[in-house]
Amino acid sequence: MKVLVLNCGSSSLKYQLINMENEEVQAIGIVERIGIGDSFVKHEAVGKAKVIIEEEMANHKKAIKLVLEALVHPEHGAIASMNEISAVGHRVVHGGEKFTESVIITKEVKDALEACSELAPLHNPPNLMGINACEEILPNVPMVAVFDTAFHQTMPASSYIYALPYEYYEKHGIRRYGFHGTSHKYVSDRAASILGKPLSELKLVSCHLGNGASVTAINGGKSVDTTMGFTPLEGLVMGTRCGDIDPAIVTFIMEKEKMNIDQLNNLVNKQSGVLGISGVSSDFRDIEGAADEGNERAQLALDVYYQKVKKYIGAFAAEMGGIDAVLFTAGLGENSAAARKEICSGLEFLGIKIDDEKNNVRGKETVVTTDDSTVKVLLIPTNEELTIARETVALI
After folding, report:
1. Which positions are annotated as active-site residues?
2. How much is the mean pLDDT over the chain?
3. Is the pLDDT of residue 355 over 80?
């Protein structure tokens, strides 16, 4: 069985074709600049050279059509015909409270996703565009929606309710939802396998540290708390997002800088985070380089970032009454030995002892603590696409 996994953004589309008999990726690619000119597809099938297909794509339907043509191309394709695609798994960012698990896509499901769009206006509409486009081109192929928020629907009310008038939760669904659920689920499953213990017996803190970042407390395989909230803005300092701030700052800046709502949203989502502090970049490689050269604001950005992650690891350990392992994943978590070491520095009282030699690794499953460390620290490359494919197969 071959599953096509699609992750549609407003002007981009990431995809993988996975053979679920052996869970091997047969093709991978990304479409960029959909609807904004100079659009192209970067495509690579296993064992074949990468290709770049430059063609204008006015919408997601055209983009998906080009992806499918690339997959069946006689020279750089991965399959003989579209009939080999057994199902399509779609990443959907926000399922609200309506979806606590993945679902086969129907008209009713799409209507519900449309209703959730006000909770994720930047993400759900393009997710839906991808679903509709795919249904037109592959009308007889089953489609599954896999939600970023679903994994966190096991959080208790004490973790997701905001201290606002309760009627706003009842009327508008204002609560903490959490994101990066497919990533946190994947790495927690892998951690159980690596540690050789049942997931149901483990207390884990999963750190998904990329340009967007979140930390999740996982007790017995279930999310019990997480840093992202009503939107992906809450929680950690991120590449361009501010994370936790005093809410009064919002109205203060709007008044002082004469900003409207759109300008303020742009400020906290796209101009803040480590970019805002450092003034250098939202890319941690650039910031680390600048800090090494003596840039004090770049070093401050790193210090603030590490402190916030460390703070939540400690908080979640307290909340769960202890932890068995800390998991690092995503771009920074997988590739920065310095970040892992700095974040874990000071957590020795929990039983964490980083082994510098083991920690000197990038993008490879590794236990980076000493043999006598009572709390293990694991580097686990995430694989959200495989999680989506597995959920898709399980449903169809």
Report:
1. 148
2. 93
3. yes
Q: Are 305 and 237 in contact (CB under 8 A)?
A: yes
265 vs 119, 146, 331, CA distance in Å? 14, 27, 25
pLDDT of residue 215 exceeding 80: yes
Same domain, 120 and 267: no
The string of pLDDT tens digits covering residues 58-109 is 888 888 889 999 999 999 999 999 899 999 999 888 888 888 889 999 999 9
Residue 365 buriedness (CB in 10 A; 0-12 / 13-18 / 19+): middle
In a domain, 12, yes or no: yes
Question: Does 394 map to a domain?
Answer: no
Q: What is the DSSP letter of 79?
A: S
Domain residues for the domain of 37 are 2-147
- Residue 210 marked in a binding site: yes
10 — pLDDT class (breaks 50, 70, 90): low
Q: Token digits for 311?
A: 């703070």
**CA atoms of 340 and 55, how far apart (whole Å):** 41
Q: Is 91 annotated as a binding residue?
A: yes
Q: What is the CATH number of the domain that holds 111?
A: 3.30.420.40
Say whether both 121 and 211 belong to one domain: no
Task: Give dist(CA 179, CA 147) in Å, integer.
Answer: 9
Question: What's the burial of 173, exposed, middle or buried (CB within 10 Å: 0-12/13-18/19+)?
Answer: middle
Look up residue 362 and give its amino acid.
Answer: R
CA-based radius of gyration for the chain: 21
- Using the structure block, give the residue that is written with the tokens 């043509």: 69
pLDDT in tens, 152-183: 999 999 999 999 999 999 999 899 999 999 99
Ligand-binding annotation for 391, yes or no, is: no
The kind and range of the H/E element at 378 are strand 376-379
Measured distance CA(351)–CA(112) in Å, rounded: 45
Residue 212 in marked binding region = yes
The answer to whether position 320 is within a domain reads yes
